[in-house]
Amino acid sequence: NTPHGKAFDFILNRDKRKLSGDDKHLFQRFVLTLIFYAMGGTDENDPKEHHTSSYARGGWESDSVHFLTGLHECHWVKKSLEDHFWGILSIESESDQRVGVTKCNNDMEVIELRLADLNLVGFLPEEIKWLSTLESLDM
Questions:
Q1: Most CB atoms closer than 10 Å: which of 27, 50, 108, 125?
Q2: pTM summary value
Q3: Which is it for the CA torsion 32, 34, 39, 45, positive or negative?
C-alpha cells in the first residue's frame, strides 16, 4: 500500500499501455506514476482505492491531469482551471498554465513537469533522478 507498491502494481496490472520490460520509456512511466502516488495522487480507476474527495483529505486525482491513462506519459497534461478561467476573460493569454507533463523532447522523454496548483501532499521520491532529461520541475 506504499507509493512504490501502488506504482509497481499499476505498471504491472492496470496500465493500459502494457510496456514491455525492454521499452526505453518503462522507467520514465514508473517514475511519473511513483511521483503521482508519493505526492498524494489517487487513481479513480483503482478498485482498491477508497474514494473520498481528494481536497477533503489533501492530494490530487488522476483525471485532474490525465495521469495513469493509456496515453503516452508525454500526454499526461491538462489545462489548469486557473488558465481556463483567465482564458475566458482574455482574448490573448501569454501564460500557459498547463499541469502535468508539460514538455517532452523528440524522443518522448520528459523535459518539464508542472505540478503546481494540484493540492500536493506527501514527498518527492528520490527516483525522480531517473528522469535524466528533466530540466524543469514546478511544484
A1: 125
A2: 0.82
A3: positive
